[in-house]
Predict the structure of DNA polymerase III subunit gamma/tau.
Amino acid sequence: MAALYRRYRPETFQEVIGQIHVTGPLRHALTSDRSHHAYLFSGPRGCGKTTSARILARCLNCAKGPTDTPCGECPSCVELSRDGGGSLDVVEIDAASHNGVDDARELRERAVFAPARDRYKIYILDEAHMVTQQGFNALLKIVEEPPEHVKFIFATTDPDKVLPTIRSRTHHYPFRLVVPAELLAYLQQVSESEGVTIEEGVLALVVRSGGGSVRDSLSLLDQLIAGSSDQAITLEGAQALLGYTPRVLLDEVVAAFASKDAPVAFQSLDSVMQSGQDPRRFVEDLLAHIRDIIVIQATGTEAHELFPGVSQGDLGIWQEQASWFSPAQLASMGREISDTLQHMSGVTAPRLQLELMVAKLLVRADASVNGSAGRSVDVPAATPADRPASATNQPADQKASTAAPEAGPGSGPGPEHSSTAPSVPEASIEPPTSDVASEEVFATPVEPLAEWTLEAVVERWSGIVETVGEQKRSLWVVLSETTPVALNADVLTVGFAKRSDAEILKKPQGPGSPLPNADLLRDAIYQHTGHRVRFTIAELEPHQVPTPGANATSQWPVVSKPGSDSSGSGDSGGNSDETAGVAASESETSAHASPAVSEEDSMATTEGAGSAPENTEPASLVEESPEEPGAESAEADSKSDPTASASATSQNAKGSSGPPLATRGEPVLRQVLGGELIGEEILSEMSGQGEADV
Ligand SMILES: [Zn+2]
């Protein structure tokens, strides 16, 4: 018996499924007698291009045509039916094997002869993208100005490979994959007329496997029918034949995740492996299953429309499974599984990958259900010694700030260990105060933050900076003096102590790397927040420059922009504040380098400059209170700062001065440095404020 897809090959446009956007206009052109001389049918394989080309030929050559509904009785119609032997006037050429210039020439020469019997001589070129350049060139003339009686239909999966000069002379009809619901209805129809009983859910599997191709789906159904004993196809049999993981196993595994039942999870895994199932396929199926649950959870009672062919019973089970997890958990599980899938190709020990994945999923489910207790499992051991944030307790640590990064992130175990380290002990004693807190402790990328606000980013900023530090120390040094100051959709404004500092974001990550440093920061932000951002730059007022222990959110809500001085003072005042900021940040290094700095100076530097890497650590060290003394003292210190900054800058022979010098730029520098002008670049950067996209 012929294959299903041949026996059910459509003979009219009405029978073609899922391509109404193509068949509709074609039929209209036929009935209004406006058919073109050349057509290009493109689209994925198995979705009806060649079939439609034959139908079109049949319509054009029907004795009662041209018509959109071939009569089916005239000699042409009979010959071109699916059981017919083919017509002399309809020439099908497989361009894959007849792609050369000779074939094209032959075609061209033959085409000039009138049709043997019917209205048109029709050439169907299948796999037209295989025709060579010379072949197309040889065809060009005849496609361009064909004789009245000649029609061309090109069918291809890759229209871009068809010579543009040819393509532009055709009417292009793009075919599509058939949507699942339509395909399912069609398969149901076919199996009914084949007289087979099919258990619910089987066809949905076939549709999924067929991937939208009618031919592939029919072939699979054919195979199932052929392999079934008594014209009945069971779900179990279909799953086995199509290579799907048995549903029972998937349900078992998901239940194990929900109940955090490690033994059951690993036993199910073992039975998967024992059954000879491909581990990769199992992961794929699990991912698809989690996806189904996610969709069901999101759509509730509307779900059945999205799952054509799935029985109510199954939907009920999935709905129950959906109730076991939070949306965030499901999303995070999905991501974990998807990551595993990506890493599985070419892996020599797929089982190991699989087991690791299950272990992580168990921990993840555990962590997000139980809060702190579970989370601590996920978190690498905290190493407070690494923590620049300890500076709050030990102001002297400031001096080591430049050295700290060398010892810090390099020895850290996980990407976020340092940002979260101090909060871990707290978190494991007390329940998390908010989602924010609980997510921050996750060592792996978190779900996109529910509350995507500036505060949320500020709260994670120190962790983000630490993550960057593990990749690139120099970037860490600069970023530790920054704080986010505004968030507008996906545009994050990062406040830098000095505008010139922001330049580092544009610099390449390394020699030969086309990627800018900004990408490192972007990735780190994504790791901590699940959001991808774009950057703009702002320059911080000196009092905004991060201070250890200060409450970040309440301290610098204002974006510094030219002309909008937040402190209310005049332009000159604002400017001097800015220069103080520059000086202060410079003093960070100089304070470290020079023991000669007086005690008063070093104190002022430490607190006032507040620009050490640790400063951005916001809420985890100090309880969040709107009235934060740190903010005040920073404000005050920045005013009493001049001595520190002046001495610092002179030590450093770089930078500028503090508030007492009411102007900035060259005069300031001359004043401070005795006429030696250094740092023009910085100044020109500072004068050009505004925002810069990175
Ligand atoms: Zn006919």
